[in-house]
User: What shape does this take?
Amino acid sequence: MKYIGKEVSRVDGVAKVTGMAKYAAEFQLKNTAYGYIVQSTCPKGTILKIDTSEAEKLPGVLKIYTHLNTPKSKSQSGFVALQSDRILFNGQPVALVIAETFEQARYAAQLIQIEYKTEPFNTELEKAEPKPARSAKVRGNPKKAFEESPVKIVAEYTIPIEHHNPIEPHAAIAAWEGDSLTIFVKTQGVKDMQNHLAQSFGIAKEQVHVISPFVGGAFGSALNPHYYPFLAAMAARDLKRPVKLSYTRRQMFTGHGYRPYTWQKVSIGATEDGKLQSIIHEAITNSSSFEDFIEASNNYGRSLYNCPNYDTPYRIAKLDLPTPTWMRAPGMVSGAFALECALDELAYKLKIDPLELRLINYAETDPDTGKPFSSKALRECYIKGAELFGWKNRKFEPRSMRDGRWLVGWGMATGIWGAFMLPASVKITYKADNTAYVESATSDIGPGTYTVITIIAAEFLGLPIEKVKFSLGDSQMPDAPLQGGSFTTASVGTAAQGAALQIKQKFLELARKSDPVFSNINQEEVEMSEGYLRLKTEPSKAISISELMQKNGLKEITETYTARPSSERQKYTTMAHGAQFVEVKADEELGIIKVTRVVETTATGRVINKKTSHSQEIGGVVWGIGMALQEATEIDHRYGRMITTDLATYHFPVNADIHEVITEFVEENDTIVNPLGIKGMGELCMVGIPAAVANAVFHATGKRIRQLPITPDKLFD
Ligand code: MOS
Assistant: This one.
């Protein structure tokens, strides 16, 4: 392969660093009016009175929308703003000011007077009565097996609410022409956004044009459409001029969802020699009062370890907060924190090395379904990671390793993620000057989709990377799923390969007609390479593609290919795996914990672009460190209000917090997942990290901290 598996710099890198890449709020439309969202200060109740008269008198104010004058959305699925006087959470939008400038709108917003009737509310999971939600079926007899096990562990773990905090705030610019809407908007899925807006206004999909070429990070926060695109489009339609609406940083915290508060209890029964007998992994996550958000974190280990008895009861707690959503590695990273820490606790009880304990219970086939894995190089990840890290030099006892005043701890964990694939289409136009234009309605929220799809198309079209232009993020392009679940490269990449092969087939058919050399040749025997169609076995036998096109009077040829997950996949469990090894240094007197070294080994099928893939992995490690040590959205439960709603009080790692991070891939040859053998990696890479950090903290200090984040105060206790 010429490009696949090599290191390719981002094809959109220059555009991004020079400011040429346009994000949603940066498009310029003539006569644009600006919106500002007014939010409720009451957590639950009704709006008794809303007085906009003072605000309306201000210069530049065009109109103020409240529940009293906002047109109803024709789609009431999810949360729709300004539809009634009901208040469901603190920070709920209760008015939208539209003015000639953003500053005028923002100032006017402060003059709106609102009276609420506040009702009793609850924002604390511990005070809620959780209700059972969909749980996977029970394996064996977990209760009995637990009771009968000679060695038992029971432990509870909590993870606070966390927010995505992409650098780019959510924003939309909406403009109507008659009954047709054009919207520039931040989204992980232009097609989903198109459907949402078509339904909201009761118009055909074709009447909604969603444009989103660049997204400045999203991590799940732009999977759902959220309330602001409807508001922008509603106001633009009503005022008959373009409207731009953007969240402020603070508004991000209530405007797009969050990782739910998660309580987990893990009960493990094992034999003296470390064989797992029973796992009962309970979970409760919070949702809102008006939607059921399901994130069964406790399913994490079901397909990972051999354990004959397994139960994963799951409940949700309805709180008076906005609805949670998916956030990078949803469910899995939370479940891994509980189970991978509990296994560490078990390892200490048994006096077995934590890595050895994982190997004792290594599953060669999926214990949940009995199916074989399409590929699983987790053992190789453990071995390679341990070697790179120097795990064999670890002293088992906690507090047994030191570096001057620092206590040193080494911890490890496992990560898993599904090797998902969804139907996706790609269109390729090949021009007679040997350039190619590739299109798909996917998005690139940062992982490097522009680059990776360009690589795949260039590889199979036999063109230099610079001759291939890939465009995305437009609802008029061929269907693609939203960018999430780490399934984009597997889905859209397979379609890009398919479309390129179809182009090759077309050229082969033309070649057969004009050159007898090709008459009995099939697709596999030829390749496209630098503007030629060439016999693989006899490279000198080649035909110029541009001449072939000229001869046939063609300026370009276009092929669209839809890739679908194969039925063969059904016979297997398809997953990506990884192992994480972490070193921390802790200063007990100051409460400081530094993650000084991380080795992450990942088995994720074939890696298309080593460069961006390593940066994905490093990013996942950094996020995992943040989740372990820093991240929390604090709520003042007296007011039901999120309070760490800015980048000063919501902590995550900066460069100074990150030390050595080594990421290595163990490649797998897996043509069952898809022909190119691609598995996703963008979420997998953070899954085991918080657990590995917590386990390292225990090894360093002897303190088992089960409540994230592991902040200095918890080290002092
Ligand atoms: Mo991801 S949480 O599937 O955007």
